[in-house]
Amino acid sequence: MSVIATLITGAIAGWLGGKIYRGSGLGLLGNIIVGILGGGVGSWLLDRVFDLSLGDGWFGSIVTGAIGAIVILFLINLVFRHK
Q1: How far apart are CA 83 and CA 31, in angstroms?
Q2: Which one, 11, 54, 55, 72, has least CB within 10 Å?
Q3: How many angstroms separate the CA atoms of 83 and 43, rounded?
Q4: Is the pLDDT of residue 69 over 80?
Q5: Which of 44, 36, 49, 46 is nearest to 9 (CA)?
Q6: Model pTM?
Q7: Are 33 and 68 in contact (CB under 8 A)?
Q8: Cβ count within 10 A of residue 80
């Protein structure tokens, strides 16, 4: 996947993960970072732990990234709890 496609997919996945999880907004750059990292986490989680695949296209990449982004946002909120 090209760099531009990775950034777009990461931004969409991070935004979607943030909307589903309802955490604090991270902005465009934060969404891209969480989405790209979420793609790796989601891929590992689905492939290795649950032995699932959501496909190789855009849709599968975005959903996998969103699942990983939700996991990352959950962990971030566990570590940095707001009082």
Answers
A1: 23
A2: 55
A3: 32
A4: yes
A5: 36
A6: 0.83
A7: no
A8: 8
Structure tokens given for 73: 């946002």
Query: Would you state the pLDDT for residue 24?
Result: 58
Give the C-alpha separation, 83 to 68, whole Å. 25
SS3 56: coil
- Which has the closest alpha carbon to 68: 6, 1, 14? 14
Closest listed residue to residue 61, CA positions, set 34, 43, 74: 43
Which residue do the tokens 């309802």 mark? 22
Distance, in Å, from the CA atom of 62 to the CA atom of 68, rounded to the nearest integer, reads 10
